[in-house]
Amino acid sequence: MYARRGVVFASGGFAHNADLIDEYWRGPLYSSCAVATAQGDFIPIAREAGAELAHMQNGWLYEDILEKAAMNRVNEDKGIPVPPGDSMIYVDRNGNRVVNEKLVYQDRNRVIWDRDKNGDYPNRVLFMVYDDYVAHDTKPTLFWDKFRTPKPYIIEGQTWEEITERIEARLKSLTSVIGDFELAPGFAEQLGQTVDRFNGFARAGVDEDFHRCENMSEYDWHGIPRPGNEKNPGMFPFAETWPYYCVLICGMVLDTNGGPKTNSNSQVLRSDGSVIPGLYGAGNCVASIAGDGYLSLGSTLGPAATFAYLAAESVVQEAPRDTEAARARYTADTLTTSQNS
Length: 341
Hints:
CATH class of the largest domain: Alpha Beta
Structural class: alpha+beta
CATH superfamily of the largest domain: Succinate dehydrogenase/fumarate reductase flavoprotein, catalytic domain
Radius of gyration: 24 Å
Oligomer: single chain
């Protein structure tokens, strides 16, 4: 009603809107480092204006510590960019590895939202398991201090059976967040076998299952290897002595990045490809040019700044509107609707 040439939305995604997550998102989402006001305000406005929505299941994928997410879904310490250490693996509820733990986060975390034949999300909780060296590693690397002991969310055990019992107790305490989620029978035994298999790969320097640290991006993200590791900087056999540790992991997003489609001028589009006059969007409130991918560092800020600039360039070329007439029409339409109801 008051915009003379147009309106540019840059209101963020919908990571903290439970209704929109249930309607559109790919599965359970327990946290995001987007601000609490990332409620998808642009979505209903764009839908009402006739916009076509796209990429609504997508976002900038990350992972979080489940017990921290359970306390506050607005993540204030940026989650887990790189899982810590070399003597560390992620396992599922069966005790099996399910992913290359050193993949870039957008690719690493897809497995969390994999669905089984029953439509459930068996990986909605994963288990980071690591040894005492990693738990006390002081190398200056990305956020590893989150996993240095002691911390309330870190489970410690002297046997696989003890760790299993403590995991089960934690899962029961989190039922209100994650629903019914149990370890599979035989988890402790399988976890021990999985660690033994990983140790063999680490000694050889080759991860035959998931090809961990076979490309330079994984080398760079992992950081410098520990002294004595000359095979693969991202892998080292677990210590032969206990304790070992476990942290419960869940999926998060930096933010969602689906919304109305836009063109190269940041103009919002209808399903037939036509422009909705005067309506623009940039950033996480619109369908990202990255689709389901991650372009590089700055994939959120770069396109947001670029397309906000393009929107500004375009909106100033819009023909000025008669705002008084627009407000009069709106008032009349509102009055008519009220009388008819």
